[in-house]
Design a protein that fits this description.
It is built from 9 helices and 22 strands. It has about 375 residues and is an alpha+beta fold. It folds into 2 domains: about 140 residues, Creatinase/prolidase N-terminal domain (Creatine Amidinohydrolase, Chain A, domain 1), CATH 3.40.350.10; about 220 residues, Creatine Amidinohydrolase, CATH 3.90.230. The strands form 6 sheets. Strands 4-3-2-1-5-6 form a 6-stranded mixed beta sheet, sandwiched between helices. Strands 15-14-16-19-20 form a 5-stranded antiparallel beta sheet. Strands 8-7-9-12 form a 4-stranded antiparallel beta sheet, with no helix packed on it. Strand 5, helix 4 and strand 6 form a beta-alpha-beta unit. Helix 1 packs antiparallel against helix 5, helix 3 packs parallel to helix 4 and helix 8 packs antiparallel against helix 9.
Length: about 375
């Protein structure tokens, strides 16, 4: 799914406005092959990392550059980027330090993605500032072009859920059950951008052949379609116990609360309070963040959580997944949806009823 020149300029203009507000001269956008952390580079360049790492340098004025390490000449299909200046450096941090010496530079990925060797090369020559929050807020409101990519990812993920549902049966392994969904994801253009798991009690487990599913299954389906936008959509499957049925009551309440609460001007804290109320009232711990902005990086700012006062804006997209854990520490429920903030409230994009599925019927 190509990105129009107008969309590219919109992205750069928003990031440059954030640089202006922060008084910075440029931003280094970091990405690595670790699943979910490559998307910021794709967002800024069209390039998809499949090996090692890469950086995009966007100055406040002038043209961008994309920088690759020379020890891995192939880190992806270089022709997919729209950036003309493509740099292969023995030490990317040294090249960046030469270009940016004496400047104040924001770094997206300073704490988690920028490599140690490149940080050492930059430190002392460039004033580095954390820029994760500012960058994510600059890209949080999606354009119509981006929203079509989001909706396509959702359609693929919903079809993948139904493929998982059709393959599920107690006694089958997670690998056997996930295989049809993963085949569908690859066929539909997700490539490497899938991160799918199942919950075993309150803990996540990958789709391995030694993970045997019981009569109640909680899959976690997280993928990015051809446009690179991540989404998360899933429902529990099988025969729930009494505790999970009680948790489902809170999920139904959350679903309706989110429709009302996710409006422009509401704070992320307000949304968290509204959607978590039913779980708290029933005495459940919430074992995972209630929700978070999602885009071409899997987890973006802001999160939907306690004390987060960032205001929602129309066309922000959030993954919502309250994680209810029972007092026994084992029973849990974790169902995901990708939501769009609209002028009239939250819109769950998948169109799946909030229920537990059993043999392709609702529990």
């Amino acid at each position: 799914m190509g990105v129009t020149p107008e969309e590219r300029e919109r992205r750069y203009a928003n990031v440059r406005a954030a640089l202006d507000e922060a008084g910075l001269d440029a931003v280094i956008v970091c990405g690595s092959e670790y699943t979910g952390f490559e998307g910021a580079v794709t967002y800024m360049s069209g390039f998809v990392i499949v090996h090692r790492y890469a950086y995009v340098l966007l100055p406040r004025e002038g043209d961008p550059a994309i920088v690759f390490p020379t020890e891995a000449r192939y880190v992806g299909e270089h022709g997919t980027t729209w950036i003309e200046e493509q740099v292969f450096a023995d030490l990317p941090g040294a090249w960046l330090a030469d270009r940016l010496a004496g400047q104040r530079v924001g770094v997206y990925g300073l704490d988690y993605v920028l490599t140690v060797r490149d940080h050492q090369a930059l430190a002392g020559r460039v004033a580095l500032e954390p820029f994760d929050l500012e960058f994510d807020l600059a890209r949080a409101v999606k354009s119509d072009e981006e929203l079509e990519s989001v909706r396509e990812s959702v359609r693929i993920n919903v079809d993948g859920f139904h493929a998982f549902l059709a393959a599920y049966a107690p006694g089958r392994t997670a690998a056997q059950t996930f295989a049809p969904a993963e085949e569908l994801f690859v066929e539909r253009g997700c490539g490497r951008l899938t991160m799918n798991m199942v919950l075993v009690g309150p803990e996540f487990a990958i789709a391995r052949a030694d993970t045997v599913l019981g009569d109640f299954c909680v899959p976690s389906l997280e993928i990015a379609g051809p446009g690179g936008h991540w989404v998360e959509v899933s429902r529990a499957i099988g025969v729930p116990g009494a505790e999970e049925r009680r948790m489902l009551e809170a999920y139904v309440e959350y679903f309706e609360a989110a429709r009302e609460a996710m409006r422009p001007g509401a704070s992320a804290h307000d949304v968290h309070a509204a959607v978590s109320r039913g779980f708290r009232a029933r005495g459940y711990d919430l074992g995972h963040v209630t929700g978070h902005s999602i885009g071409m990086t899997m987890i973006e700012h802001p999160k939907i959580g306690e004390g987060v006062e960032t205001e929602l804006r129309e066309n922000m997209v959030f993954s919502m997944h309250p994680h209810a854990i029972g007092r026994d520490g084992r029973s849990c429920l974790y169902m995901q949806d990708t939501w769009l903030v609209t002028s009239s409230g939250g819109e769950p994009l998948a169109g799946l009823p909030m229920r537990i599925y059993s043999d392709q019927t609702a529990a």
